[in-house]
Amino acid sequence: MDSKTVFELRKESQKLSGIEKLNKLNSALSVARNLYAEVLYDEWIQKAFAWVLIDLCKLYIAERNLNEAEFFYNELNSIDFQSCEDEIIENQKKILRPKIDTNYLEVKRAEELSKNGNHREALAIFKKLISQNRLTRLHHESYGWIIYRLIKTEESNLTSIEVRTFLRDYINLENERPSMLHSMILNFALNYSKIHSDFKFYNFFLLWNPINLRDEDLQDGYKNEKKIPSLISRICRQFVNSNTEINIEEYLSKINLSKETVLDFFRETIFWNIFNAHKEHKFSDLWNLFEQYNAKYSKNGQSKWHSEILNLAERFMIENDEWRFLNFFKNWNPENLRNEDWKETKKDENTYKPLATKAIKKAFEILKTQKIEQNLSWLIQPYEKAIQLFPDDEWLLREKALLHCRNNELELTIKIYKQLVLELADKYYIWQEFSDCVFDNSLIIGMLSKALSLEKNEDFLGDIHLGLAKTLIEENLLENALVELVAYKKHREVKGWKLSLVFDELYKKASSVKKSLKDNQELYKKYIPFAENFVYDDIGWTELVLVDKWQDSKGKDRLTFTDGKVIEFVIGKNRLEILKQSELGQIFKFKLYKQEIKKEVEAKSVCLNKTIGIQGKYIPLIAEKTEKKQWEILSDTFAIVDYINKEKNIIHAITTDNKEVFFPQIKNELQIGDFVTAKSYIKKVKDESRTELRQIQKIDKEIAISKFQTQIAVIDGVNEQKELFHFVISSNLQGIVKFTETNLRPKEGDFIKIIFAKKMDKDKKIRVKILSIEPTQEVNLNLRKDITGLLIVKYKDSNYEENFPDFAFIEDYYVPKYLLEKHNITNDCKVNVRVIYGEDKMLRPKWKVMQIQKYE
Questions:
Q1: pLDDT for 227-264, tens place per residue?
Q2: What is the spatial distance between Cα 27 and Cα 12, in angstroms, rounded to a whole number?
Q3: Co-location of 615 and 601 in the same domain
């Protein structure tokens, strides 16, 4: 159905009378109402609806049923024509009004008096109508405007009771709601409550009913390009500033805006109240505002202004008031941190850390100064998210570990510190922090000893000396404890720093013994392994060989270790005590940590940006000697001498896996073609991997040659004039053999067995170096095959006068003219051919026909 249906039903009603007419109009009305509910602003639906209502008004006026007529007239007025008002319909409304409303003239006069400022006279007219019981719903809108204009204009002359009475009278009216009048009454009540504290605005607002807020009341307005805050935001601000107790959940449920938006009207007001209290140095009010805010609004979830208030707390709770932040943040609830709070912010070309990380770190620093027992899960949870977002921040992981320690979650603490020690094995502070999380005195002594062995700047070691001395006293190692206390005292006196009270207590306990030790180095050597073995217990041993000793640009001795294949690293000779006396080829076992390092690398395509690649770096943690022979763990390899650079006395050789290797001549023993055996390993030079040999020895050819690659090759050409033949192993492996190099004289199509090595020439072409060659009956079907089929001859330029065709094809294989002449083939015929894989005149690999057998 559409608007046409309504007009047709209405037209049919005009031919009827009485109850039939009424029924037909009611049918039209039902259709019109449904259409209007579905499509509110369709012009033709609005007009169809209006004309049905006009007809019903006229019908009931004729029957003198003014109550019914008034009902439909009010519905007619409710149609929102917006910009498409119909002049004829508006005239009909003006005609109907006085016929329906017997009080029309009096009401109209009251309206004119009110608009002209004669509010009391206008009110008197309506009081008379009320007293005579003549005020109908039709007059309620007009009466509401008269009340509004009166209280708005004469507010200062009215008592609070009078104003509340007028507002009560308005609330009892049944005028259209929501509407402009209804919102203006609410706006008046809001402003009135700011001056008159005895007026309970929240109670009035509930009577007014928040569901009557219009879209205009929920949005900011603008006048002369100046923003006017929305009515709802001003209402929320007043509730805050008047300390009105409200049911926030009920309130939020009645407002047609998102929960977060409405909450922020309250929270923004509190934000500025806090900001101004701090600005005016009203610190008592400031702390109360923070506390009251959390009590009322922290449970209502995240929002922009909830985060802004946390930001104020982080800024304002400093120095002597910093302690306040811990409980504030806990009650504010870190679960309310938004995604935006985890991002850096920029302002005036400055970059600021994320609010979330500032807050959790501030809470952590306060906790460090407190000894109270509490469940810290509320703070550990945001630390977990921070670590996910900022995995390169070691402080976050360290702080989380200490929180677990304070929370008596020792297994988690130890797990994290074992991970941290892998990344930061050479940082003294990690070992110091770890010692705070274990309770075995041997481990504590070992960890603190490790910290002292790593850091040489005494400025950082005061607390470590004291902590170690305390544990040594508990183990009755008083002289060792005294050594640590003396070291602590001596440095503090040199610096002019005060001695701590802890020092005095410990010194009294240890000073009774006679000090004969100069230092605690032997103690450190004894206990550090306890700590290291505990920390690295989950890591297996890896055997490595020392392959190089050298000095860096600073003159420091460096050692290179490798497993021969994948693992390689360089370490300072003095890094680990056991490496100070080491020899080339010596086998050590290490506990290693593979650290992933992000590195920017060039993209393969110029169109792409640089990418971030992950590279592995091996970090040696601890080492032990093994009983294995020198170089034993490296792989055995064999090689043939390919070239000797006599000027530099360097041998160029090729290994059994076809790697080119270079090494110094061995006492002038080696000649080209000699074989050697050696231990090999892979050496990384920049982005290139090279094969290096050690323990090189000359070896007999008979022993070595069997280690090299063997293949079956086909002879694809013999040149008697040049005294050589050409062989093919595969599409990219082929070569020539001169007659002077072998007694073998094969024919084209024969197979030979080759033992060879291969290397890359300067032009990037693979060259085959033959070590042994012999005839064979073995066949490589990838290089030679027999085909039976129809041979089709071809002529150039349609020249059929010649005796022989120019060429021919069998399947896709080309047959040259000389073979056709040799076998006297002039026509298409069935043949058997033998093809081999070889080269054409352009040295391109291809299949070629070498033999033809013609069928009769």
A1: 899 999 999 999 999 999 998 888 999 999 999 999 99
A2: 11
A3: yes
